[in-house]
Design goal:
The structure is a homotetramer of 426-residue chains. Chain A contains 7 helices and 22 strands. With 426 residues, chain A is an alpha+beta fold. The first copy, chain A, has 2 domains: 294 residues, Jelly Rolls, CATH 2.60.120; 103 residues, no CATH class. In chain A, strand 9 and strand 10 form a beta hairpin. In chain A, helix 6 packs across helix 7. Chain A is globular and about 65 Å long. Chains in contact: A-B, A-C, A-D, B-C, B-D, C-D. At the C-D interface, helix 3, strand 12, strand 17, helix 5 and strand 18 of C face helix 3, strand 12, strand 17, helix 5 and strand 18 of D. Strand 18 of chain A pairs antiparallel with strand 19 of chain B. Chains A, B, C, D: It comes from Lentinus tigrinus ALCF2SS1-6.
Chain lengths: 426, 426, 426, 426
């Protein structure tokens, strides 16, 4: 009896249905623009929840083919919940955001990881692998995820929003559009494209707003694919439940938006849709440091990691340098991206020695709590990047043995592939 | 009495004097070449020690100017101890190397971190900062380092060899020289140079060998600056005391060489001579996995990190994307190196708000146990890289406060600079 | 659309209402007895949820007095949900239980920590402090808890069931009752009592069972206060979400029961109701190792801790030895309990130097993720026990400074106390 | 050349020879007494080294029998190096001691762990096992230890001084002697004894001092076996290299003494000489907090653990309660020592299932980085204590498997035993 009194649930500011397409829902938008009105306002210190659809807005199913990945409509992503305004926030302030919790819906205890087609989304190795759609479904069992498509692993998730940020000012938005256009212009016909200009088709603001405002937003609104100075789609796995983040404020109210929740992700999120994508619920509280942009020298968000991020202290670590020795052997000049790719390809090769297919390995490295460090970036001409695979996520002991078999090779099945039988070459 | 029996020190295979120029010492070489004879041979499982000079071979002093950094002769680096052959190792095998200990000489309990001149060594921000020589001396107090040139910090070292590797085969060496020459040819007149071709001047093999062999080694021997497929100068801080490493074997005996010991280093080692450089002693044991290159898919070393690496769980983390917003604002295409630079510049700006000079901040981020992760590398056009600064290394609480002062600004002095008063602009 | 298919929530086997007294609910019992029938049966590998009332069954309120603690009816605790039978489990097997999640009800986002009266519950320092009821209410904000009654701290919870176990066989139950009776008989009139014999008053089995069975259970059923060979009320904080536990099986079906959920707890749970007590939901899956009791030498549960337990690596650690130097100075003989008490009293004294009252300190050490190690237990006559307080849970930097003030003393208010003004002496 | 200048080794204040009996060496003492003069004085902030013999003073050899353990003369232990006075320290101050390093002598790269005879030293299970002497020799390979007497394990050491403390005042010394005498008097004829009164036989002060002073010290000096309010033989493994300790000061100068260095130890050090005992070198610096005893509420030392303590995050954890179910089944009243013993016996039983003998298991749990937590200490009548065994120290995967064999049983040899063939019963 005594317990009922003062038992007040944390309020939910934005509710969505994870089973309904995002563009039929309120409080959801998929472009960055200062003119998108706040759908709710909070006071500093208030605790609140926001619900989010998955980043595609219910386009991907819990099944055993990758056809939905192949056919995904990328003009409609990412679907963000918000904006939420914070009382008293003004340009030049720092918005302190506590990410108090990130969880899936009870009614949807699963997520997915995908390899996108070369011509529809791509991914880090889209060109190298001539990627064809593939997918793994992950089941959530409390803190753990497992996949029928990638057997033999189980890991605790570093759950986080892949995408979170404050609204840009008009000036900042213009800067983004200008600089990205210059890049696009410099790479005509690139497949996959190097960047994505504003595009009215697929744009969405889940609010009743004047049509002229809507048209302006659709015409100018920045696409959500890249992270930028306001945060955005940084896909930093450690911006996780329990972390504290400091964002620059560019417009009055700060206007925080969030989406693209991930149950787990490896550093790099290499297969593009590489995290375990989920719909879910995020819990926040916000506060303000007046004049924080100047006082902290804040050009881009900073954050404090969470004390509850999974700890897997035993790891096997792969190195990579900026020579494409998995490809044509070309020497690059201090290019950490090339180095990252070699480390990843070395890890994929290792996983294949255990019996995983290349696609399974690619998906696993994208989704599991893999860590990738920039080892050295000054030893011309080779940057060195490492990729660390936690040993504790495997059922088997995957360390090399001095006696045969050196590694525990097994038939480990296959991930979800296209129903028409079209496959990439391995 | 009872204790004397069976008290047998671990044997030292290579002895050096850290106070004597490297090119006057035996068992030291500074080029990679298959024809450099092994100076010692060990059995699998044997524990042994190797002494190393600092990477410059006694060129840098414990003083308060940076003149020695300015004038360093880089044709003579890095000075490696070895090679040590392992009985039974053959091309295609995997050499398992346990790095059992890494320690400074008792008689030289200090090290240094340097910013090199734009025209003599450079560093990650050589161009941006128009670098002039600067230096910090670090005193070693057991597991900790402190510096009179960067007050207010103390940290435990992740001690490791910056440079360790097996000898290349002639074929691999030829590949290196060919691909690096192509890069050099593509960047004529670059300052600092993009890569370093073989160069007889400054080359050294601390052994009596036939003159024709010496000439061949000097003419063809690969320079030691970059890491490559055999390991080499990877400057991976976690290849530290207590780690286990798996190297590919390219020639009979494997011929392991090591040098460039670091008391500590941050991920990236950004100021080039960014680690805390030291002379010292490394303890090894080796074993062999026959046919390991094929069985492990080993194109470059892999390793297991050490259980005694320092643990600083509380951190402040800076983000960076592949837009040069600290410079001309240019948008790069998925370039993790540019992203790393922005994260580093954000961290430097933060440290300056605490009262550190830009040079102090640059040196501190290079030397302290900073972690840099590749956050996301698929969100076109922006790669996202993070840089994490451990809070526990600072005397002050450096987290932002909501009330003024937001950060604890203090006069924190200056690092060692040129005695002629020439300074870089800040 | 695609997301609805195959979205199947994890099933809940036992549902309770946290606002209703436990003895009005089904699937709840508060004694251990082999004859309590299973209320549900699961297959090995199945994932399922069980809801639990708080340990008192809704006796304690979210308010600012401790009157409800003073008046609590302890004959009715602990209320356990279950038993759940596992198909195929037989005596002598090992039941493997994965604790996949532990979470509060959304509708009740708070918990409490209490000091019980000397004459009604007691606690570690009941005699020393002549305890009077006190209480702290904790609000749950995602992974964190804070309390208006103990300001200046915030910590991530190591959420776990305080009480979980398999059903005893009749033989084991008889052993328990016999040995505990002997202890009670040896300490006539002890306050608080040294142990609790079976007691029909307050006993409850939330099922329709034959009256003779009920009477037998009430007459013989073991009380739930102590942990025993089957698990039970071990109050081990690291038996937490993400852990895997191995229980001996004593009867067919194993008959697992669970309750007394804790949002957080310090090692020792010293104030008796020292954890942050909550109602909530636990997620399990179970499997069986046939003959595991013999094969593992399993006399009591063993477990593997969770990778998501909070990590606070910086700590201040207090020592204690088995001399009652906070009391009459008496020397005890290798008594780890006395040593633990001194360590705890040392920590309480330190917290008082920060401005916390003795009651606040006692409650905080009980509830926060404090670690207590048995340092040494062979140095006659003094056992040495340590108690480690994580620094990261405090808003202030609580380490000693060399300059005044050595510690940051503040007025830190008061916990909830008796409304009649009766207080313990401090 | 440049490196020689300002290369000043850290000074060594006390030098010993680890191969010579302690009572033939200077700067060594084996009783606690305020009148033992300081052998050196340091300034606050100064870094210095102190050499230590092993705790027995060279009585134990690197061989394959336990005869030296059987015959050890315990009247001569522990041999402490010191005292070292700190300028400015006065009674009531807090002495801050940084333990900067702890390392073995290069010339003696090994240590030992022993089970002592029931009638000569004992240990936690002296009575239960009717202990006979046994021993394991450990070889030090950099950060790791291995033993030919306990194969299949390798672990990084948490190196620390088992014994460190400030000198007692005469008043404190008198208190110790009084309370311990009372305990001895209450347990006449106990085997092993419950405590050790002052004893002139075997006492030693390695200095030239007036004979009357020497006699007083020998007559009154407290034995070194137990830890007390000044620190002393606390055998806390985390008082390790890199930790910072705060000691109460009882006499002018503080007079710090240290000895009983351990390469590694498990929580509890259960076999009495359970740590890996070694001779070696410890590096310190000290500072003072004036009036710190009062300002910190300091009744016994407090400390901050080291960031370089080994991290083994994966563990298997054994529970124990205060019922002697491994013995006569007796119920104890909230006795954490009994609970610790059950947890230890459960772990020993598990290790025996892997093929280790009981003595090997006992020695391993004493020496390896095992953690023991006080789980709960308020659930009358059962205290609950856990003992956590790190998985990463074993060559084999020792987790239970669902299929046979459940555990990897092997012949694992035997530890060093008595040459006369006398054995304890198992």
């Amino acid at each position: 009896m005594a317990t009922r009194l003062n038992s007040v649930p944390i309020k939910t500011l934005i509710e969505v249905d994870p089973f309904v397409p995002a563009d039929q829902q309120q409080g959801v938008h998929n472009r960055w623009h200062p003119d998108i009105p706040a759908v709710a306002t909070v006071k500093p210190g208030e605790v609140f929840k926001v619900q989010c659809v998955d980043w595609t807005g219910a386009q991907i199913g819990n099944n055993d083919t990758s056809d939905d990945i192949r056919d995904v409509d990328l003009s409609k992503v990412h679907n963000l919940s918000g904006p939420v305004a914070v009382e008293g926030a003004e340009p030049g302030d720092c918005l302190v955001v506590d990410i108090l919790d990130v969880a899936p819906f009870d009614k949807m205890p699963w997520g997915y990881t995908g390899i996108f087609e070369l011509t529809n989304g791509g991914g880090l190795f889209a060109q190298e692998f001539q990627s064809r759609a593939a997918k793994a479904i992950w089941d959530f069992h409390g803190v753990y995820a497992t996949s029928r498509h990638i057997p033999g692993v189980r890991f605790a998730g570093v759950s986080h929003p892949g995408l979170i940020g404050t609204a840009p000012s008009q000036e900042l938005l213009d800067t983004w559009n200008k600089r990205e256009k210059e890049l696009i212009d410099a790479h005509p016909g690139a497949v996959p494209p190097v960047a994505f200009p504003p595009q009215a088709q697929g744009a969405y603001v889940g609010q009743n707003i004047p049509e002229t405002v809507r048209e302006k937003i659709y015409a100018e609104g920045a696409r959500t694919i890249p992270g930028r100075e306001h945060g955005g789609n940084c896909d930093i796995k450690n911006l996780s439940r329990g972390s504290r983040c400091y964002f620059p404020v560019f417009i009055k109210g700060a206007n925080l938006s969030v989406g693209d929740l991930h149950f787990s992700q490896g550093d790099g999120e290499m297969s593009f849709c590489g995290a375990i994508e989920m719909a879910g619920i995020i819990t926040f509280s916000c506060s303000i440091i007046k004049g924080g942009v100047e006082k902290l020298g804040l050009k881009q968000p900073i954050f404090l990691p969470s004390p509850v991020d999974p700890l897997y202290s035993s790891k096997i670590i792969f190195e990579g340098i900026s020579v494409d020795y998995h490809g044509d052997g070309k020497q690059y000049n201090m290019d950490a991206t090339v180095a990252y790719k070699q480390a990843a390809l070395n890890a994929i090769a290792y996983l294949q020695k255990l019996g995983y297919t290349r696609q399974q390995a690619y998906l696993l490295l994208s989704a599991a709590p893999v860590e990738s460090h920039v080892g050295a970036i000054v030893d011309s001409p080779n940057a060195c990047v490492t990729l660390a695979l936690p040993l504790g996520i495997f059922e088997d002991d995957i360390l090399p043995k001095a006696t045969d078999p050196v590694l525990p090779f097994k038939d480990r099945g296959e991930c979800a592939l296209r129903s028409d039988g079209v496959r990439e070459e391995s």
